[in-house]
Amino acid sequence: MKARMVPGATAPSVRVMLVDDSAVIRGIMRRWIDAERGLDVVGSAINGHEAISEAQRVQPDVIILDLEMPVMSGMDALPELKTLLPHVKILIASTLTTRNARASLAAMRAGATDYLAKPDAAVSREHFREQLLGKLRALGGSKNSTDGAAIANVDGLKKSKRWQGQMRALAIGASTGGPQALNELFGALSEQFSDCAVFVTQHMPAHFTKLLGDDLAERIGLPGGEAKDGELVVPGRLYMAPGGFHMRIVEEAGALRIALGDDDAINFCKPAVDPMFASIGTHFGADCAAVVLTGMGSDGANGAKLVHEKGGLVLAQDQATSTVWGMPGAAVAAGAVDQMLPLAKIGPRLLQLKG
Predict the structure, then answer these.
(1) 67, 85, 113, 301: least buried by Cβ within 10 Å?
(2) Could you list the residue range(s) of the whole structural domain that residue 263 is in?
(3) With a threshold of 0.85, does the pTM exceed it?
(4) Helix or strand or coil: residue 190?
(5) Number of domains forming the structure of the chain
(6) Strand 224-226 relative to strand 197-202, pairing
(7) Pair 112, 175 in one domain
(8) Nearby residues of 83 by Cβ (< 8 Å), 6 or more positions away
(9) Residue 81 in 3-state DSSP?
(10) What percentage of the chain exceeds 70 in pLDDT?
């Protein structure tokens, strides 16, 4: 039975379950999590079979799930965990390799919520700790991370603006919960954007962005994928920001090209959505649309505001369908959003606006 909140009461702790065959990894995560106020480890398991039984017993809010385990893998346990606990958030934890990235993306398509890179030669233990605690707080907390007053009367197009542009560029930004949202959105846009350049920034490492870019290009029926520095920007192509680089649009000799930047993280992210939105708004003006999908943090809000000020159209995923309503909520609070919609309605709306 869930605890009932009363005025002035402290919010209940986020209940976390650890599923990993490594006692070392379980021990590290347990020590960090239990040291944080508002986070509690309530159970653990060393394989998928144990995880199913333990999850039913402890009823966690978030499960950290390793994919490669004996007896039953995390991938095999995932569908049953989601069936038994439909509202549980599942955070995949694995080492950062192309093979594991492929498996983790498949897990997210099957219902996992997000990914966490385990510490190794490429990922420091401190980075792992920061990502772990940040994601647990975002996934276990309230979806509404923005002042509710800021979203009043933003359930339709603003009365003060009717978009007058043409959709020559479509830019989409996402973070936590983004891979699932992008797959659904791009399925709705399939083969309708041959005259529009499509840009995507998803907060993910390089191994993931290459695979995700290829998947999204196939779903929307366009060539392209992970963007390359200096390549021409042309209609009917998809450009995915590579992990570890910010993606911007620049003009050179009268032509628009992709510019990948290895500059500092923006909003603690690299790639970040803000520089992509800002450069696309600058070069396409009113002839672009920006979409802010589910994600923790506020990345994308400033760039979306510039798109809006340049006459472009800005859509945001609504709170109810967002895994974490940080990024869309921040864009709404910034006054940048023209329309807020459930995920299932964003694709049809874009097609309607595109004409």
Answers:
(1) 85
(2) 158-354
(3) yes
(4) coil
(5) 2
(6) unpaired
(7) no
(8) none
(9) helix
(10) 91
